[in-house]
Amino acid sequence: MFNVKLFAILAEQIGQTEVQLSLTAPITAAAVKAALQEQFPQTAAVLADCLVAINQTFVSEERFAPDEVTEIALIPPVSGG
């Protein structure tokens, strides 16, 4: 199980700032999004625009072995000024 940090509207939709997801190798951004959407279907629209950070680096197509992953975070689009 991996702890996944959630922010902004994504955390609001789920009602938590961190969730546990079961992920199998290789771990990818798409796999993280799919696992979260399976567990929390209401996140589908927001997940489409989220960035995934693994080990504090934004990722897209990179693949990680489970023992390489120390942190996963999902970052939804935000605005500010």
From TrEMBL:
<dbReference type="InterPro" id="IPR003749">
    <property type="entry name" value="ThiS/MoaD-like"/>
</dbReference>
<dbReference type="GO" id="GO:0000166">
    <property type="term" value="F:nucleotide binding"/>
</dbReference>
<protein>
    <recommendedName>
        <fullName>Molybdopterin synthase sulfur carrier subunit</fullName>
    </recommendedName>
</protein>
<dbReference type="Pfam" id="PF02597">
    <property type="entry name" value="ThiS"/>
</dbReference>
<dbReference type="InterPro" id="IPR012675">
    <property type="entry name" value="Beta-grasp_dom_sf"/>
</dbReference>
<dbReference type="InterPro" id="IPR016155">
    <property type="entry name" value="Mopterin_synth/thiamin_S_b"/>
</dbReference>
<comment type="similarity">
    <text>Belongs to the MoaD family.</text>
</comment>
<dbReference type="InterPro" id="IPR044672">
    <property type="entry name" value="MOCS2A"/>
</dbReference>
<keyword id="KW-0547">Nucleotide-binding</keyword>
<dbReference type="GO" id="GO:0006777">
    <property type="term" value="P:Mo-molybdopterin cofactor biosynthetic process"/>
</dbReference>
<dbReference type="GO" id="GO:1990133">
    <property type="term" value="C:molybdopterin adenylyltransferase complex"/>
</dbReference>
